[in-house]
């Protein structure tokens, strides 16, 4: 039995990344520097003032201090202001490391290649698969081989479709994003290629994937529900992306999907990963825990962006432009 369980590590990485995003969102100096990008970043100052008030202003109780104490207090405040100024400059320097927003397409190149790579590894029980298997604990509950095939196909379809969209709907743009966004995106699409099948390792240890597992058979209720959600969400997302790419200038979207949601395409993304979590649920489970953790990361990441988008719309086009609209999830958020 492995001392380090690969599935647990992947799950923890998704939850930790989601928590880190929430922390950054909660700290204004980090939020303003690292979360806003693209059109929303145009309204954010490039530098946030880190000065701690007026260092020469007396604080409560100063009148009772001696001259030496007051002098010492002034020095301490100057040191604090200097320290925060240094921190601000360091954060500014980090935030200035940016890449073109068009590099988003690399996520889907990685996703598609990762799906193809792991399909080969699983079918032929090659070296990389064996490394992951050796790092995985024994578990009585496992995905079936057919579940592995179906959910892997879903992930490949998702990556390939998004790659197509990133090419077909691409427009010349000077928008940039913090390099950390790009690195985190690459990390997600590398790990999700493993996450979709890793809870099937106990079954893969016992049997091989064969041609019969690729043949069409009447779907189980679980597969039927997951497939319907996946197809509808994918179609809705394509429609939203196509509409957004057709806009001649940036404004409040008038497409029906945007009438009650600020970011319906983000909601569709969450539904896509929810469908995979349902499809890949091991025996006796409602959902696949590893993909569920991935969904938590996706939901938090897109939710923070949707919140920023709603505020940007309200500031740019007036509060009435988003009045009565949910950010991302109907009746919830």
Low-confidence stretches: 44-83
The span between the termini is: 42 Å
Strand order of the largest sheet: 1-2
Count of distinct strands: 2
Question: How many individual helices?
Answer: 11
Order of helices and strands: HHHEHHHEHHHHH
Report the major sheet.
2 strands, antiparallel
Instruction: Based on Cα principal axes, name the global outline.
Output: globular
Oligomeric state of shown chains: single chain
Please state the average pLDDT score. Answer: 85
* Helix fraction by DSSP (H/I, runs of at least 4): 55-70%
Strand composition percent:
under 5%
Rg over C-alpha atoms, rounded to the nearest angstrom: 24 Å
Helical/strand content category? mainly alpha
Give a verbal description of the structure.
Residues 55-74 are annotated as: Disordered. This is Polyprenal reductase. Residues 60-69 have a biased composition (Polar residues). It catalyses: a di-trans,poly-cis-dolichal + NADP(+) = a di-trans,poly-cis-polyprenal + NADPH + H(+). InterPro entries: 3-oxo-5_a-steroid_4-DH_C, Dfg10/SRD5A3. With 333 residues, this protein is mainly alpha-helical. 61% of the residues lie in helices and 2% in strands. The chain has a two-stranded antiparallel sheet. Helix 1 packs parallel to helix 11. The chain is globular, with a radius of gyration of 24 Å. The protein starts with 5 loop residues before the first helix and ends in a 16-residue tail after the last helix. 30% of the residues are buried. Mean pLDDT is 85; it is low at 44-83.
């Amino acid at each position: 039995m492995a001392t380090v369980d690969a599935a647990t590590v992947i799950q923890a990485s998704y939850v930790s990344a989601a928590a880190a995003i929430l922390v950054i969102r909660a700290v204004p100096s980090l939020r303003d520097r690292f979360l806003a990008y693209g059109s929303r970043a145009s309204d954010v100052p490039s530098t946030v003032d880190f000065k701690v008030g007026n260092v020469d202003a007396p604080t409560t109780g100063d009148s009772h201090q001696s001259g030496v104490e007051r002098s010492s207090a002034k020095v301490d405040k100057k040191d604090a202001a200097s320290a925060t100024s240094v921190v601000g400059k360091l954060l500014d320097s980090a935030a200035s490391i940016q890449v073109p927003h068009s590099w988003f397409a690399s996520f889907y190149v990685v996703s598609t290649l990762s799906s193809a790579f792991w399909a080969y590894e699983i079918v032929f029980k090659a070296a990389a698969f064996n490394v992951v298997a050796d790092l995985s604990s024994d578990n009585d509950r496992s995905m079936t081989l057919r579940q592995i095939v179906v959910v892997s196909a879903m992930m490949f379809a998702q990556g390939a479709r998004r790659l197509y969209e990133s090419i077909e709907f691409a427009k010349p743009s000077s928008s940039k994003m913090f390099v950390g966004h790009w690195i985190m995106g690459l990390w997600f699409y590398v790990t999700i290629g493993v996450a979709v099948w890793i809870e099937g390792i106990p079954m893969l240890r016992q049997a091989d994937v064969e041609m019969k597992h690729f043949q069409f058979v009447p779907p189980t209720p679980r597969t039927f529900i997951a497939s319907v959600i996946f197809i509808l969400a994918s179609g809705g997302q394509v429609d939203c992306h196509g509409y957004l790419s057709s806009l001649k200038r940036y404004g409040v979207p008038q497409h029906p999907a945007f009438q009650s949601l600020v970011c319906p395409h983000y909601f569709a993304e969450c539904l896509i990963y929810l469908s995979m979590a349902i499809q890949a649920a091991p025996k006796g489970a409602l959902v696949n825990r590893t993909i569920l953790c991935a969904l938590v990361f996706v939901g938090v990441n897109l939710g923070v962006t949707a919140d920023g988008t709603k505020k940007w719309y309200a500031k740019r086009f007036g509060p009435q432009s988003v009045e009565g609209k949910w950010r991302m999830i109907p009746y919830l958020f």
